[in-house]
Amino acid sequence: MSQIPTILLFIIVFALWAVAHSISASSRFKGAVRARIGARSYDGTYRLLYNLVAAVTLLPVLIVGAMALPHRVLWQVERPFSVLFAGVQVLGVAGLFISLLQTDIMRFAGLGQFVRYLQGRPDVNPDPVLTTSGTYRLVRHPLYFFGLLLLWFAPTMTVSLLLFNIAATIYFWMGSGYE
């Protein structure tokens, strides 16, 4: 019973992060920022700043998850299956990396646009190319898919990890509909 307030705290902090992250990804919000700072400044800086803010604001979620939630082990997959689970997680990391490379990891991070902006290039954010090959040929959203492999194939599942995985999965599901 004493864990309910910390679980509620985690849910609230995660939900606040998710709402802020989704709002800042919305066309309406981005349009307002673009109108305020100008098209060129927006095109050159928004994606990088969006990613930095998302990472920094995710820290409280991770801190609450690490410090306030219970770390009691719910289950542990024993060998040889734990090796298989770890292999699926490695596949998840590799798939994430390959998918990011396929769609231009520098553009995804916002660094490509920022460098072109600093260089004074006129087209700082060229139109993206629709990728339909590689991992994108197999899965509609490989970043979510491989991220879920990484989350759910942890050989040791604790209460805190389970709660984070559930929250992240719900966010991915809602985010995929939103996108």
Structure report:
The structure is a single chain. Helix content is 74%, strand content 4%. It contains nine helices and two strands. It has a two-stranded antiparallel ribbon with strand order 1-2. Helix 2 packs across helix 3 (39-67) and helix 3 (39-67) runs antiparallel to helix 6 (111-118).
Strand content: under 5%
Considering DSSP H and I runs of 4 or more, what fraction of the residues is helical?
Answer: over 70%
Question: Strand order within the widest sheet?
Answer: 1-2
What summary fits the major beta sheet? 2 strands, antiparallel
Q: Please give the radius of gyration in angstroms.
A: 19 Å
Uncertain runs: none
Q: Element order, helices and strands?
A: HHHEHHHHHEH
Q: What is the structural class?
A: mainly alpha
Write down the overall mean pLDDT: 91
Instruction: Give the termini separation.
Output: 38 Å
Count of separate DSSP helical elements: 9
Count of beta strands: 2
**C-alpha geometry:** globular
Short description:
The protein is mostly helical. 74% of the residues lie in helices and 4% in strands. The mean pLDDT is 91.
Brief descriptors of the model:
179 residues, mainly alpha, two-stranded antiparallel sheet, globular
Topology:
Blueprint: H1 4-25, H2 27-37, H3 39-67, E1 73-76, H4 81-102, H5 105-109, H6 111-118, H7 135-138, H8 142-152, E2 156-158, H9 159-178
Antiparallel strand pairs: 1-2
Helix pairs in contact: 1-3, 1-9, 2-3, 3-6, 4-8, 8-9
